Amino acid sequence: MTFQITVVSGKGGTGKTTLTASLAYLLKDIVVADCDVDASNLHLLLDPVVKEKKPYYGHKISAVDEELCTGCGLCETNCRFGAIKVDEGLKAHIDSIACEACGVCSFVCPAGAIKLEDRPTGEVYISDTDVCPMVHARLNAGEGTAGKLVTMVREEACKIAGKDGMVLIDGPPGIGCPVIASVAGTNIAVIVIEPTVSGVNDFNRVLSVVNRFKVKPCVCINKYDLNLHYTECVEGYCKEAGIRVLGRVPYDREVYDSICDGIVPVKGVRDEIKAYYVNIFENLKRLIDEIRSENK
């Protein structure tokens, strides 16, 4: 079974994607999946070249056959979302944004003029990068069902990696449906945390999701030197809870400049800063080896 690692955070902006890109560069023989489908940005650092596109059908939408429509107005009357209007020519028209594809209009239409049809709501991309294969996606503006798209991205990544391979997932921030879809069924969840009051609170929230799905949690403290007191508090809590701390990353201008230049941080910083990422990688590799040996 494919070994899967998800990098998550309780909120956006913690440095999750920059850590994922750096780990992808260090792990090398993996497939990386950007599961932050609502606002993907891993491509900004890994610069993927798209090799294949697949349409994503997130949900259905009502469609009217105007030749069959009699303009009776039952669909408009029964649509609680106000998504159907019958015009002066006695033909029904669907507002694609307002339509929730509940199917009531199709059910009440005496002429059988309305049917539910699949609607493309995004795309999945299978790409190559200088580091490894990459699977990512784009969800069309205003569309939902992000969790379903995350699942599709993971499935495609696992197909490429194979049962003996490894997938590194850049998960979305927060604790919502896309996070659940990114975490459930994985082997390790790397939680990226900032040492602030809100950062600690967000860490506890996402940790509860990880624990709920019985995924092995571990922690990386980004910008650790912003507040050494909270960094020590987080490390103390993790020690008591038996959660492994993979390492720290300092708040350094070179990391910022590297990101602005579209360069993976571990490639664009001086050796002193690179050592922090290498330390995280080595500790993660040990954890991977431990879990794999336990599962044999």
Structure description:
This is (4Fe-4S)-binding protein. Residues 60-89, 90-119 form the 4Fe-4S ferredoxin-type domain. Pfam families: CbiA (PF01656), Fer4 (PF00037). One of its GO terms (molecular function) is oxidoreductase activity. This protein has helices at 16-27, 43-46, 74-78, 104-108, 146-161, 177-183, 197-212, 228-241, 253-260, 265-268, 271-294; strands at 3-9, 31-34, 49-64, 84-86, 92-94, 114-128, 133-139, 166-173, 188-193, 216-222, 244-249. By secondary structure, it is of the alpha/beta class. Strand 4 (84-86) and strand 5 (92-94) form a beta hairpin. Helix content is 39%, strand content 28%. Helix 5 packs parallel to helix 6 (177-183). It folds into 2 domains: 3-47 and 129-294, Rossmann fold; 59-120, Alpha-Beta Plaits. The strands form 2 sheets. Strands 3-6-7-2-8-1-9-10-11 form a 9-stranded mixed sheet, sandwiched between helices. The protein has a two-stranded antiparallel ribbon with strand order 4-5. It is built from 11 helices and 11 strands. The radius of gyration is 23 Å and the shape is elongated.
